[in-house]
Amino acid sequence: MGVFDKFKDQFHTSSPSYDFPTSHQPIQLGQNAIFRYRQQRGVNLGSWFSLERWICQNVFRNASQPGQSDFDVASGKDAKRILEEHWDTWIRDEDWKWIKDRGFNSVRIPISYYHLCGPLPEVLKGTDFEPFHHIFEGAWGRIKRAIEMAGEYGLGVLIDLHGAAGAQNSDAHAGLSKGKVGFWDKHSNLASTSLALRFLASELCNIPHIVGLELLNEPANNSKLQGWYKSTIEEIRSIVPFDFPLYISDAWDTGHYSSFVGQHDKDFIVLDHHLYRCFTESDKKKSGYQHSKELKENFQIELKNQSEISKRSLIIGEWSASLDSNSFGNISDTEKDSQRREFVKTQLELFENDTSGYWFWTFKKGDGWDAGWSAKDANRAEILPNWVGGKNFKGHPPQGVKERELHEAHNSHTGYWSSHGGSPDPTVFAPGFSQGWDDSILFLSHPSGTSQIGFISQWMNRRKIEYENQSGKKLGKATWEWEHGFKQGVEASLKVCTS
């Protein structure tokens, strides 16, 4: 029996209007599925719900000491009014438009378990936030509205459980200012988290523009974490289908968890790595140009390798333009911006080439200029490009172009393998190419704006099943040949149809 099942009856008793489903159908491949499988180019909406004082100082004006976390705000004077006012004003219509106009196609929204207590009171039982139901009961309705607004602008949404009961890391952004990891200390913490994640997965999985659910943000790594990931994924999969993406943090151990994700390639599991170069003593000794050079020469090799191991189910959930002040020394603000510009340019190139997407941290700050952390300020300083949306779709190609490209690719393929010992089944290359071409244009012509296949292994896995079912032919040893054709079809369409 999972921890959720122990609370199911109580959950229904306290929230009789909520009908917890037992099964869902996968979203059919097509326009609706594109949100989840495309190259994600996103921005975090940091400190909208899970607060960080350095981003929005004003919300902490009445917080209890030490005044760094959601718990401190909730413990302070007039907390309900302050929080609801913040939730209602932090992101406005013009902000959604700004995000869309720069080519971002998704947002990552950090939330915490206590934000679910309106429809799910039991999520607070036995946790630090149990006394604060009345303060956070209005959060979930606003989160749902945020999801709706993103969808109206054609933006995907990644919901991230930023704070779990007891705190999964020692930072205040996990909800507490205790400076310790209490997540594993009590059964009630694990029960609350299981309940929260099942609720979120069930509520969100049938919304096409929800691109996924992140199980925990930056959990402290220990011997229990991988087992928890495995059992939690199994619990969630008992109520939602395999095509609903579940994101897991690499817990700063990318090599280990890329293998974990790669071994689960029949499930839609995505690895989240956070890339910052401003915190360690080593980072502080390097200029922006040096960081850029090291990313190109060293990190790129590592990133490409981990991406391949994970079957390209790897994203950068947080990154920024920020560099420590010691990285600059005594230089002008213009030169600082120049270094940040090069740093950002390098990161974007790496993410486009070797991952399935990214989310910049963060969209904005409440007070003061910060071109390192605020996407809006970085854009004004021309550090973050004015357009991050990739190449433009020129329109559907003239009749006969696809056939010509397929013919040339097929001849090249069969010619090569005929002189290198043959291939398992050269007849499956052409249908793979044709499917890749068609699917690539399906993405490129998406109504929300130019999209590109990002999670290509995940998409191909489903298309292969369709091909085998429709053709009555099992690919077997020829699987790689069909996949080779598919990838070449995608590449050919991008060359012909984008500028």
Automatic annotation (TrEMBL):
One Pfam family this sequence matches: Cellulase
Keyword Transit peptide among UniProt keywords: no
Keywords: Glycosidase, Hydrolase
SUPFAM superfamilies the UniProt entry points to: (Trans)glycosidases
Recorded GO MF terms: glucan endo-1,6-beta-glucosidase activity
Domain Glycoside hydrolase family per the UniProt entry, residue ranges: 95-364
Family of this protein: Belongs to the glycosyl hydrolase 5 (cellulase A) family.
UniProt cross-references to PANTHER family, sorted A to Z: GLUCAN 1,3-BETA-GLUCOSIDASE 3, GLUCAN ENDO-1,6-BETA-GLUCOSIDASE B
Full protein name: Cytoplasmic protein
Species annotation: Kwoniella pini CBS 10737
Lineage of origin: Eukaryota, Fungi, Dikarya, Basidiomycota, Agaricomycotina
